[in-house]
Amino acid sequence: MATTIESDFTTRLELALSPFTEMLEKKRQELSKDEWIRLVDSLESSVSNVPDQYVKGELPSKYVLNEIVKKVFEELRQSSLL
């Protein structure tokens, strides 16, 4: 069960990333699958390494943060395969 901090962070992360996910959706049409995956991987890495550039406020532990980021980006990858 997610804590309040984790749930709040997930919501704030998804909102903060919405312009990026929109851009990724558009780029998915323009780039090859490999190029698109590299772009997604790059953004995921950036969010994991410097989350305060994307999300303001209290952050969960580094481990929990990375797990949430991984889940959000995995959902993005999966939704793009549909």
Structure explained in plain terms:
- This protein is mostly helical and 82 residues long.
- The protein is built from three helices and no strands.
- Helix 1 (4-30) packs parallel to helix 3 (62-80).
- The longest helix has 27 residues, at 4-30.
- It is elongated, with a radius of gyration of 13 Å.
- The chain starts with a helix and ends with a helix.
- 12% of the residues are buried.
- The mean pLDDT is 90.
Summarize the structure.
This protein is mainly α and 82 residues long. It contains three helices and no strands.
Low-confidence sequence ranges: none
Q: Ends: how far apart? A: 28 Å
Radius of gyration (CA) equals: 13 Å
Helix and strand element order: HHH
What do the pLDDT scores average to? 90
Structure annotation, total helices? 3
Write out key terms for the chains shown.
82 residues; 77% helix; 3 helices; mainly alpha
Helices, strands, pairings?
Blueprint: H1 4-30, H2 33-49, H3 62-80
